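Entry 12.
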Amino acid sequence: MRKISREDSFCDYYRQWIAVYKEGAVREITLKKYLLTYSWLVRLIPNQTVGDLDKMSYQQLLNAYAEQHERQTVMDFHHQLKGAILDAMDEGLIDRDPTRKAIVKGKAPREKKIKYLNQFELHKLLNSLNLDSRLNWDWLILLVAKTGLRFSEALAITPKDFDFAHQSLSVDKTWDYKSGTGFLPTKNRSSVRKVAIDWQLIVQFSELVKGLPEDKPIFVHGKVYNSTVNGVLARRCVEASVPVITIHGLRHTHASLLLFAGVSIASVAMRLGHSSMTTTQKTYLHIIQELENKDIDLVMRSLSGLT
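Predicted 3D structure (tokens):
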């Protein structure tokens, strides 16, 4: 591998930095994000040398990237570059930290309202499922609706993950349906969890997984496509005359119903495998605000009854 000098382009340095420090050390999806950042460097600063990267040129780079991206995306771009830049400083290729006090700009975020079903609509959807005696995608739809698992987590479920005696399901891995490499670790450490499941699901799956290999995924038979399962779900939604949602929308439905039922944010966060309650609060902010408004109405009615 050629040694990079101060006169080489920062693009070349960053690509080499990815190869040395990130390839084989991070998940494939994370590596793709670094490579995407590299592609933007090639587009925005193809001739910028390592040694001449200063505060002004770095801020101009961030500003150019911010013209087409939201602020959070620009922040991620900034953090992915900062690690490489600090290493370049340690190697004596850059004299001063150009990222210090950098101003992160970006386009205003688009309003993102998550799609989910209400309780009545979910009942109609589940009643439309084709739940026969053999495992099919309808069974996966039911499992996600009742557990809130991520799609990759649901695909990784094996018979031994069910604890029928204690009515729980262990989530400690995912299935790499994008690249087809098999089992992968969960999204984060908080995603390793035990999810309580109802007695009806216990009875149903205890029969379905009987005789299946203990350590093989129960839903995977060859290549799996997210679009295939979403297609099945879309058809079931149409048959049930409810809004069409995705498998990830079923996860939102699960969480939303729990919040509306009065389950605490902390418990919902643990059940979903979120790294912190902050993630849950941000994702379901509009639902939490609706609940707060209901609480205020309840408080006012209670107070008005006092004499």
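Annotation: The mean pLDDT is 91. The longest strand covers residues 168-171.
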